[in-house]
Design goal:
Number of helices: 6
Shape: globular
CATH superfamily: Aldolase class I
Radius of gyration: 16 Å
Number of domains: 1
Order of helices and strands: EEHEHEEHEHEEHH
CATH class: Alpha Beta
Largest sheet: 8 strands, parallel
CATH topology: TIM Barrel
Oligomer: single chain
CATH architecture: Alpha-Beta Barrel
Distance between the termini: 10 Å
């Protein structure tokens, strides 16, 4: 079964994590480059940016304003731990701001930061932390009554992808499945 949403957010930690040749739809995919350890070479990031642009993909840089401006990305991604309100001036430069949150307090902060979309985590149980809490479809849908900017993130894999049709959101975000089984996931997104 296919999943039909308007926005697919793919979070990568390295530009080698994703093969852009697998993505055939235009203007539906948003790539978030979230590398906090070792940033790829600027020249490689510029090439990646140009390839994204030619394919009609939006590229966001996580928590690094200088890098986002230097590669002329479409916007910036503010993780949940970033509480600063210094990013409001980026809206004047036509930068989109996306944030992530785990609870109501963080959602409120992301709205103050000017985020037009908020990745809200965890939708499903994750493999790497079996004891961590997760929302589930019903709780997530209740949160969408508070804010219609929410996009589900966390625990989404090839096995529970069909359950996203019940989620009240116009998109969803993937992190670990992009690295594990990209071909399987991409084949089900169209």
């Amino acid at each position: 079964m296919f999943i039909i949403k308007n926005k697919y957010f793919l979070i990568i930690e390295n530009i080698k994590d994703i093969d852009l040749k697998n993505i055939k739809k235009r203007n539906k995919f948003f790539i978030i480059y979230r590398n906090y350890r070792k940033i790829d070479k600027l020249s490689n990031l510029m090439k990646f940016r140009m390839e994204c642009k030619s394919k009609g993909l939006k590229l966001y840089v996580a928590n690094n304003t200088k890098l986002a401006i230097s590669i002329k990305s479409d916007g910036i991604y503010l993780p949940s731990f970033n509480k600063s309100l210094n990013f409001l001036n980026l809206k004047k430069k036509n930068f989109d701001i996306i944030g992530s949150a785990h609870n109501f307090k963080e959602i409120s902060n992301k709205v103050k930061q000017g985020c037009h979309m908020i990745l809200f985590s965890r939708l499903f149980k994750v493999d790497y932390d079996k004891n961590s809490s997760y929302l589930g479809v019903i709780k997530f849908n209740n949160f969408t009554r508070i804010s219609n900017k929410l996009i589900p993130l966390g625990g989404i894999n090839n096995y529970n992808l069909n359950r996203l049709n019940n989620v009240s959101s116009n998109g969803f975000a993937l992190l670990s499945e992009v690295k594990k089984k990209p071909a399987k996931i991409f084949s089900r997104l169209f």
